[in-house]
Every structure is written in structure tokens, then in C-alpha cells.
Design goal:
It is a single chain. By secondary structure, the chain is α+β, with helices and mostly antiparallel strands. The chain has a single domain, classed as q2cbj1_9rhob like domain (Jelly Rolls, Sandwich). Strands 1-8-5-10-4-3-2 form a seven-stranded antiparallel beta sheet, covered by helices on one side. Strands 7-6-9 form a three-stranded antiparallel beta sheet, with no helix packed on it. The protein is globular, with a radius of gyration of 18 Å.
Length: about 260
């Protein structure tokens, strides 16, 4: 991609992130990088699940372990560090988007892989972190999801509510409860964000993704992983970034380790 086309793509992505709260970038990663991320993810996941063995694990961050969380039935989240991935974030093809949004001093927050087993159900709608002020501020955290294999709709790619990164502000809307937005409450849905208001319900958006495509989204947008109705496990790597000084607190909350006696 030449410089002019790259600049045009960057401008489009930033515009979509501001208006919609997300942007899908096709062919974001070269095949070699995608294959590397998949290889590392599968190896670490196999080791962690072997160590987990028959230990009891519930649903959600607080019921999991430092090394593995079951976000919803059959949907496993395993943190993987930059060193384990053997990557330099500033050399990644999405880094310019991150710095354009969060500033040149943006920080890597955490990263890993989410694997959804066959016939795993859809998640409840949720956000990844709450707003911090009554007025709508620029994003404090951005996520990048990389499809590690081709993800047709039947495999349940991420579904998002367009523009809900603005509507999810519980500080501006007293009918919303922060914990119910963050912790996958069964009653949370896009229509809840406009309940009693004169605004239209946000549009539901999901798309098939080819291997190496990237979904970039605001941490405050309402979203969910869809049901995996295929016979194959869905693997998605994620890379989360924060504005300098912002401290995320809801991702991996359990103090226990699978290696505790």
C-alpha cells in the first residue's frame, strides 16, 4: 500500500472509530505474522489447559485464574505477554491507529487469545470499561482483535452496537448501572441504552473476517461474541492499549493461579 492510500485508510479508520466506535480493517496483518500469532496462541493455550486439568473454573474474570478465564461457556481467554508473542508493539501494523487515538505515549495494557469452542453460545452484551466523565471524552482504551483464521459468520465473530460507545455512559444516563454493563448482565442490551429516550436503538453490526483482518474498537462500545455454530474452534488474538495514566481493572481480576498448590 502506497503512502497516499495508507493515509486515506488511516483517516477512514479514525473517522469510523469516532462516529461508530469501531472499524474493521481487512488484511491488517501479513500472513506470516498471522500464522506466528496463531502458532504461539495454540501452544500456550494447550499448556495452560493441560495445567488447568480438572480444577474448578466458573464464568467470568472473578471466577477464573490469572492464567485463564472462561468468559462465557466454552469461551476461553488466555493472557499472552508481548515477550511470549515475541512482538514489538510499535512495529505492529496497527500501532499508528493506536497512537493517533491514544497519543504517542500510549501504553500496551494486555494481550492474549480468546478461543470459542464449537457450539459455544453467544455472550451477553457488555462493555470492557466504563466512562469516566459525564461528558463524552476521547477513548481511554482501544482494543485490536486479529482473526487468526478465516471467521465466517457461522463461527460467531464479534457483534457490536454502532455508536454505543457514546450511549453507554452511565454517568450521563442514571438508568444505566456500570457493573451490569461491564460484567455481562443478562438484562443488558443495545435497546437498554436508549430506553425512555428519543433516540433510535443502535444498529447491530457483525461481519465475517478473513485471517489477518483486524477489528479495532473503543473499550466503551457495547459488544458480544456471537455463538460458534461451526465444528471448529474460533481463535482471535487481542491487543489492548490504554491512554497513559489510565488503569484498567476488570480484565483479569482473580488473584489465584492454576499453579497454586
Amino acid at each position: 500500500m502506497d503512502l497516499t492510500n495508507q493515509q486515506q485508510q488511516n483517516k477512514q479508520v479514525l473517522s469510523q472509530l469516532e462516529s461508530d466506535g469501531f472499524s474493521l480493517v481487512h488484511r491488517l496483518c501479513e500472513p506470516a505474522l498471522t500464522e506466528h500469532l496463531l502458532k504461539v496462541s495454540r501452544e500456550i493455550e494447550a499448556d495452560i489447559k493441560k495445567s488447568l486439568g480438572t480444577k474448578k473454573i466458573g464464568i467470568g474474570s472473578r471466577a477464573g485464574y490469572r492464567e485463564i478465564v472462561q468468559r462465557s461457556p466454552g469461551r476461553w481467554d488466555i493472557p499472552i505477554t508481548s515477550d511470549q508473542f515475541a512482538i514489538d508493539h510499535q512495529q505492529m501494523p496497527w500501532w499508528t491507529f493506536i497512537t493517533d487515538i491514544l497519543g504517542q505515549d500510549a501504553e500496551h495494557a494486555f494481550s492474549g487469545v480468546v478461543s470459542s469452542e464449537p457450539v459455544s453460545p453467544e455472550q451477553h452484551w457488555h462493555i470492557d470499561s466504563p466512562h469516566e466523565a459525564t461528558e463524552h471524552l476521547p477513548a481511554h482504551a482501544i482494543n485490536v482483535l486479529i482473526a487468526l483464521t478465516d471467521l465466517p459468520l457461522v463461527m460467531g465473530p464479534t457483534e457490536l452496537a454502532r455508536g454505543s460507545h457514546v450511549l453507554s455512559n452511565h454517568l450521563a444516563n442514571p438508568t444505566l448501572v456500570s457493573d451490569q454493563l461491564v460484567y455481562q448482565h443478562a438484562g443488558t442490551s443495545p435497546v437498554l441504552l436508549v430506553n425512555g429516550a428519543c433516540e433510535a436503538e443502535p444498529e447491530y453490526c457483525s461481519s465475517a473476517m478473513s485471517a489477518g483482518s483486524g477489528l479495532i474498537f473503543d473499550d466503551r462500545i457495547l459488544h458480544r461474541g456471537m455463538a460458534n455454530l461451526s465444528a471448529n474452534t474460533r481463535h482471535v488474538a487481542y491487543f489492548s492499549y490504554r491512554r497513559k495514566g489510565y488503569l484498567p481493572y476488570t480484565h483479569f481480576e482473580s488473584p489465584r493461579s492454576i499453579f497454586d498448590s
